[in-house]
């Protein structure tokens, strides 16, 4: 390959990477916690029941979550813990796969969760590995959601007894004040987590919560422009 062709190839690669990573805009006052190049500052949970071998990597400036092997998911966690914060990110999720955004997560993935599932409870507030006293339903999300495209999420969480709010593509979905802190021992800090749900059932105990259809083969959840503002 000639030097001219090599130069053109590298230039095109840079343009593609820039287009993938930079479409969308991190709001003023937010600090990136994903560098757009690799998973420095993040780690895969080694204790999650979702799985510990998920295929998590960065491609074209985008965090990509897939199952590996098929049936086994996992959770990608920020190394740093956060207490009161606003989180901003953009997500592109394939249909027929279940995941979520975890806030104040433990290493094993006990957390308040914003569900990412189409079809499913998209944008709903749930508990992962914990009971949440007061959930929430994103009743108007269909008005702003762009299927198969990038969608922005802004999540605000503050207070020892949490008050949690969600905006999707700039429109507020809900705001919930929990009656109690639902974490064991009243924990007030935790990690940001991105979940790829498991789908294989390997034990009789797991069959009580059968998620066999929660992740189609080859599907992915993708994230970019991940940033936080500590309050």
Automatic annotation (TrEMBL):
Lineage of origin: Bacteria, Pseudomonadati, Bacteroidota, Cytophagia, Cytophagales
Pfam families in UniProt: 3keto-disac_hyd (PF06439)
Secretion signal span: 1-21
Domain 3-keto-alpha-glucoside-1,2-lyase/3-keto-2-hydroxy-glucal hydratase: residue ranges: 29-228
Full protein name: DUF1080 domain-containing protein
InterPro entries: AL/BT2_dom
Recorded GO MF terms: hydrolase activity
Keywords, in A-Z order: Signal
